[in-house]
Amino acid sequence: MHDKNYITLAGYAILREELHNLVTKERPHYVHLVNWAASNGDRSENADYQYGKKKLREIDKRIHQLTKKIEHAEVVDPRVHDGKETVFFGATVTILRNQTQEQTVTIIGQDEIDPSTNKISWTSPLAKILLRKNLGDTFMFTSPQGRDEIEIIEISYDT
Fold first, then answer.
1. Which helix (H) or strand (E) holds 84?
2. Annotated domain spans of the chain
């Protein structure tokens, strides 16, 4: 894991909302279920009790993970770079691969990645090579699919 856990304002809000939901809704629900199941007698063959305890362990583990992520988060507002022609964290970058194929990616935190919407981590190979490059820059990028010539054709910070 990297020293920094960069995250956008939106990503940070999502993590905090998930933690809030787990602490105020999910966990109390399963505590109540376990207490009810325990009051029914023999716990060794009590499916509700066994399931509830398992679910509580999962919830507690996720609460711990989220708490650590939030504690180590370094929230970045990409809009501070709005209008700049350099790629920084939070940028939405349109590139041209081999002068034929356009691709748009948004560089965000590790906890926010979503390949289906081309949201990539700032630690990914493509993001690492894009960061600090400027509009119009052309360079070579080697990926598992091969070697591509990349040109940066647009940079925006509207996330």
1. none
2. 5-76, 79-156
The 10s digit of each residue's pLDDT in 96-128 is 999 999 999 999 999 999 999 999 999 999 999
- Entry pTM: 0.79
Question: Average pLDDT of the chain?
Answer: 92
Residue closest to 84 by CA, chosen among 96, 74, 93: 93
Fold of domain 79-156: Chitinase A; domain 3 (3.10.50)
Decide if 70 contacts 95 (C-beta within 8 A).
no
CA–CA separation, 65 and 72 (whole Å): 11
Across residues 133-151, what is the average pLDDT?
93
H-type alpha helices, 39-153: 47-72, 125-130
CA 31 to mean position of chain CA atoms: 29
Please give the class, per CATH, of domain 5-76. Answer: mainly alpha
* Under 8 Å between Cβ of 49 and 39: no
